[in-house]
Specification:
By secondary structure, the chain is α/β, with parallel strands linked by helices. Helices cover 41% and strands 16% of the residues. The protein has nine helices and seven strands, in the order E-H-E-H-E-H-E-H-H-E-H-E-H-H-E-H. The chain has a seven-stranded mixed β-sheet, with helices on both faces. Helix 1 links the parallel strand 1 (3-9) and strand 2 (34-40). Helix 6 packs parallel to helix 9.
Length: 237
């Protein structure tokens, strides 16, 4: 079997060594045939230097792609999916905010074809969902709003997956905000793929700053949620 590990980020240089050390250990528990796809979203720090330095010093298959300017997480996610070449795909954030131990425990269900996708979810408790009360509240409100509008009850809309690559490559994604995470799992279910939801406890980042809950990002996401709700038939939601 073979696995692509996809991650993306902006100015995450401080997290690169620990992320790649984790990736090597984690992937080795699944297969020796893997690739790491890193989409640098227009960073202005030393992210690229650290990636290239690590790649030279370690025997690890890292493919590095840099957006000329900051394009946002949705753009980087969609770009990364197109670039993945292996049979299975794992999506994890470079700050390792999700603990993916349950992916390993349930991997045989995916590998033997019992399920098409393992999707991670966080607890609904506000204080354990994110770095602080504000971010946890924003995340939970996002889940409630999408669930109410689209009438779709899953445990969460997270951007972490262990999935057959052929499944995700055949899904067309339109969103340009964080709504892309909900759009993806909604379409996976709508296409009748078998999904296993597993817990992925949230882990606070050690370095850097999370960018997903800035006010402009929240406004952009709300606008997209409402837009796709109004035109959900057109966009197959």
């Amino acid at each position: 079997m073979s696995v692509s590990l996809l991650t993306y980020g902006l100015n995450e240089g401080e997290n690169i060594p620990s992320f790649l050390n984790w990736a090597k250990t984690f992937l080795s528990k699944i297969t020796d045939n893997y690739e790491i796809i890193y989409i640098d979203d227009g960073s202005t720090d030393d992210t690229i230097i650290k990636l290239n330095s690590y790649k030279k010093k370690n025997k690890i298959n890292i493919k590095i792609y840099k957006n000329k300017i900051n394009k946002g997480s949705a753009y980087s996610l969609k770009k990364g999916i197109k670039l993945c070449k292996k049979k299975f795909l794992i999506i994890q954030m470079v700050d390792r905010c999700y603990v993916l131990d349950n992916f390993l425990k349930k991997k045989e269900k995916l590998l033997n074809g019992e399920v098409d996708c393992i999707h991670g979810y966080r607890e609904k408790k506000i204080l354990s969902r994110s770095d602080n009360l504000y971010k946890g509240f924003v995340s939970l409100c996002n889940w409630f709003l999408i669930s109410i509008l689209f009438g779709f009850k899953i445990k969460d809309y997270q951007n972490t997956y262990f999935i057959r690559t052929s499944v995700i490559k055949n899904i067309r994604l339109y969103a340009y905000s964080s709504f892309v995470n909900a759009e993806l799992i909604l379409k996976i279910y709508k296409n009748n793929f078998n999904v296993l939801e597993v817990g992925v406890p949230f882990k606070k980042r050690n370095h850097g700053v999370s960018k997903g809950t800035k006010l402009n990002k929240i406004i952009q996401s709300i606008k997209e949620i409402l837009f796709y709700f109004i035109f959900k038939r057109k966009y197959d939601l």
